[in-house]
Write a structure and sequence with these properties.
The protein is an alpha+beta fold and 411 residues long. It has helices at residues 11-20, 38-42, 56-61, 67-76, 79-88, 108-121, 175-182, 203-206, 243-249, 272-285, 303-311, 324-335, 391-409; strands at 3-7, 26-30, 51-52, 63-65, 93-96, 100-103, 125-127, 132-138, 141-147, 152-154, 157-160, 187-193, 197-199, 211-221, 224-235, 239-241, 260-265, 337-344, 352-357, 375-377, 385-386. It has two domains: 3-192 and 349-409, 3-Layer(bba) Sandwich (FAD/NAD(P)-binding domain), CATH 3.50.50; 196-345, Helicase, Ruva Protein, domain 3 (Orthogonal Bundle), CATH 1.10.8. Helices cover 31% and strands 26% of the residues. 46% of the residues are buried. Bound molecules: flavin-adenine dinucleotide. Flavin-adenine dinucleotide (FAD) is lined by residues 7-13, 30-33, 38-40, 42-44, 48-49, 131-132, 161-163, 166-167, 170-173, 175, 351-352, 379-380, 390-393, 396.
């Protein structure tokens, strides 16, 4: 009987423990928190968007970093397998807009409870309030772990499923990166992802709380388009947030020293010509008004002074006095309002961590380290990340399952 230690009782760690226990191994799950699945509990606004029911091709297209590395683990335990797994454990599921899968109950706690029941059924020993402080490695082989109380646990195999750095209050404090580095692994620069953006424009603060629906957001690095998407954007005291912005943040990369530029199309349903016609109609109707009072039909009130200031046209100018060029400048501003991105918010506001353990140093079928025998990694600690929609948890389930099965095969 082999002894397998799993570090981290999150999505990846619990799944790894369940898979590792299939072959009657002695499996011990070590979690520093007082309970399992603290982050899982807050996923999907407490409803847990546990996977996405789309076709595999689309699933892979939603993985931002290292999708090729994930092929075998995703095919080994795909979204359909995840859904079957939870339904078999007695959690009925439903699929919502965008193929997002949730428990019918809308309670993330049902997912955690089902995992806990399965861990008990498979006789996994759960040790809560147990923090691992380091790995024991001898001659390129794992031999156990050190605990924070200075004791040592022997093991034949160890799975590191300690998560990333985002929402550190859930226990994801980045310990796994240190363990991996000490084992000789390379860590690809970590940064917050699926995170709000900080903008240079002070006017964003004036619009705080305003949500724009049905706009397009295009993110550039120089002339290169990094992201182009349609949806909802929210202004905040520091810049911008909302689903569109969170998705765009996944493409920011580790760094452009000069920052990034974004363009907001406030009227994506209209072509430049259609928008010009629309402005002409509005300006004809309100011909005696000042410009600042003639755009109420077109824009939310708070947005009007921003667009006018950006166009450079005096806001007190009467619309019947506008030149054609001025009107076309307004059209241009409405179709391409510039925003300068000077950074993102930090880890406590980031849904995931981009970067992590270099996947070239990991066997993609089993998640075993290529450097240390018997050492496995799973979940967000790896250099993989995806867009919102259930894809990040799918990565955690799939890599956790692969690692658990890998330890069971390990000799
Ligand atoms: C607010 C929020 C909402 C989200 N919603 C969704 C969603 O709806 N759908 C989706 O797909 N993804 C969502 N995500 C992302 C998803 O939750 C993560 O990608 C996923 O939980 C990662 O799982 P993991 O097991 O790798 O890490 P984690 O869930 O972070 O688990 C790591 C565990 O390891 C433990 N640990 C760390 N270090 C040690 C140590 N030294 N010793 C012992 N234990 C240790 C931690 O306490 C923690 O419990 C959301 C994230 C956030 C922050």
């Amino acid at each position: 009987m082999k002894r397998i230690l799993i570090i981290g009782g999150g999505a990846a760690g619990m799944m790894a423990a369940i898979a590792a226990a299939e072959n009657h191994n002695q499996v011990i799950l070590l979690e520093q928190n007082e309970k399992l699945g603290k982050k899982l509990f807050i996923t999907g606004k407490g409803r847990c968007n546990l996977t996405n029911a789309c076709e595999m091709e689309e699933l892979i297209a939603n993985i931002v970093t290292n999708h090729k590395f994930l092929y075998s683990s995703l095919y080994g335990f795909d979204n359909q397998a995840v859904m079957r797994f939870f339904e078999t454990l007695g959690v009925p599921l439903k699929t919502e807009r965008g193929n997002r899968v949730f428990p019918v109950s809308d309670h993330a706690s049902d997912i955690i409870r089902a995992l806990e029941r399965e861990l008990h059924r498979r006789k996994v020993e759960i040790r809560l309030r147990t923090r691992v402080s380091g790995l024991c490695i001898g001659q390129k082989k794992i031999t156990g772990v050190y605990l924070a109380d200075n004791t040592r646990l022997e093991a034949d195999a160890v799975v590191v499923a300690t998560g990333g750095l985002s929402y550190p209050s859930t226990g994801s404090t980045g310990d796994g990166y240190r363990f991996a580095r000490e084992a000789g692994h390379t860590i690809v620069g970590c940064r917050p992802s699926l995170v709000p953006m900080v903008t240079k424009e002070p006017w964003c603060k004036d619009l705080m709380g305003l949500t724009l629906k049905n706009v397009t957001f295009t993110l550039y690095n120089g002339k290169k388009i990094l992201f182009h998407g349609f949806g909802e954007l929210l202004f905040t005291h520091f810049g911008i947030s909302g689903p569109l912005v969170l998705s765009a943040s996944a493409y920011l990369g580790t760094g452009s020293e000069t920052g990034y530029e974004a363009r907001l199309d406030l009227k994506p349903a209209l072509t430049t010509e259609q928008l010009d016609e629309r402005l002409q109609r509005d300006f004809f109707r309100y011909q005696n008004r000042q410009l600042c009072n003639a755009m109420d039909d077109l824009l939310p009130k708070k947005m009007i002074p921003v667009v006018i200031a950006e166009s450079g046209i005096p806001s007190a100018k009467k619309v019947n006095g506008l030149t054609r060029q001025e009107r076309l400048t307004l059209v241009q501003t409405l179709k391409s309002l510039p925003l300068h991105i000077i950074g993102t918010r930090d880890y406590p506001e980031a849904i995931v961590t981009a970067g992590g353990i270099h996947v070239k140093e990991i066997h993609p079928q089993t998640m075993e380290s290529k450097l240390v025998k018997g050492l496995y990694f799973a979940g967000e600690v790896l250099d993989t990340d995806a867009l919102t929609g259930g894809f990040n948890l799918q990565i955690a389930w799939s890599t956790g399952y692969a690692a658990g099965c890998g330890t069971a095969l390990h000799d």
